[in-house]
Every structure is written in structure tokens, then in C-alpha cells.
């Protein structure tokens, strides 16, 4: 069991993005990452997007194209229901990496560009909301 704080550094190794600030949210069902220019290609069942935005230090204008895992209606933090695209990718947190589904969302109004939800956390994480970056601390 890995103990994580309410904010952690998570990585998306498939895309070369490391140590992204992520909110740990047991109230959220799934993981989500901030993207922009999200375009669905229904003919090829793929989605095109750019991770993060030009305000993030790791942003690159590289467009990513992945197969669509699913499209699902999700209730966002503001209570509005949105249709979101989910892709499968590896997420690393606390020294462990798992293949998981991640929704692509415009999170520019949110404080953290990534959200880690309870389905991912159920893979072996315990949340201590009284601390931040617990899993990132060096022994």
C-alpha cells in the first residue's frame, strides 16, 4: 500500500510528461488530464489533442493521437454533465505505474492540471488528506 497526500506528482510516461501536479480525489470516479484542442475523428475512432497548455512549463505543441477507449457522460466539479473522451494510458504515482483510462478535459480553470480518481487509487493507494506530496518524499 502506497500512502499519498491530497496533492501529488503524477507522471504520464507514454507522453514523456513527468511530475505533473495532481489532485488526489476519492470523490472522482476516474482520472482526468488537462488538454486543449480536443478533436474526435469518428471515422478512425481516434482523438487528437494537446496535453496541458502554454501556461504549463512542460507544454509542447505536439499533437497526440490515440484510439478512443470510450465516450462517457461525466458530472464535472461544477455540477454540469459533460460528454468526455477517455483514452488508455499509463499513469505513474508513488513508484507504481498502471495502465488506466483517463478523461481528456479542459481543466484550465482548475488549480491542478491532473486529477487522480478512486478507480486508480483502488489499485493500492491510501490517501492521507492532511499532507501533500507524501509519495514524492525521498527517504
| Shape-level CATH architecture | Beta Barrel
**CATH topology title:** Cathepsin D, subunit A, domain 1
Low-confidence segments, ≥5 residues, pLDDT <50?
Answer: none
Largest sheet: 6 strands, mixed, barrel
CATH homology-level superfamily? Acid Proteases
Choose one word for the global shape.
Answer: globular
Following the backbone from N to C, one meets helices and strands in this order, namely EEEEEEEEEEHE
- Give the strand tally: 11
Which strand-content bin applies to the residues?
A: over 45%
Classification by helices and strands? mainly beta
The average pLDDT is: 91
Write the layout of secondary structure elements.
Elements: E1 2-4, E2 7-12, E3 17-24, E4 31-41, E5 46-51, E6 64-67, E7 70-75, E8 81-93, E9 96-105, E10 114-116, H1 118-121, E11 125-127
Amino acid at each position: 500500500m502506497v500512502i499519498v497526500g491530497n496533492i501529488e506528482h503524477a507522471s504520464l510516461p507514454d507522453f514523456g510528461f513527468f511530475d505533473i501536479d495532481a489532485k488526489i480525489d476519492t470523490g472522482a470516479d476516474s482520472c482526468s488530464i488537462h488538454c486543449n484542442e480536443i478533436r474526435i475523428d469518428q471515422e478512425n475512432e481516434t482523438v487528437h489533442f494537446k496535453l496541458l497548455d502554454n501556461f504549463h512549463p512542460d507544454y509542447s505543441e505536439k499533437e497526440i493521437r490515440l484510439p478512443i477507449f470510450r465516450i462517457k457522460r461525466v458530472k464535472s466539479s461544477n455540477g454540469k454533465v459533460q460528454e468526455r473522451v477517455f483514452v488508455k494510458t499509463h499513469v505513474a504515482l508513488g513508484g507504481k505505474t498502471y495502465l488506466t483510462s483517463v478523461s481528456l478535459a479542459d481543466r484550465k480553470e482548475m488549480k491542478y492540471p491532473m486529477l487522480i480518481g478512486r478507480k486508480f487509487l483502488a489499485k493500492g493507494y491510501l490517501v492521507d488528506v492532511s499532507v501533500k506530496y507524501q509519495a514524492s518524499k525521498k527517504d
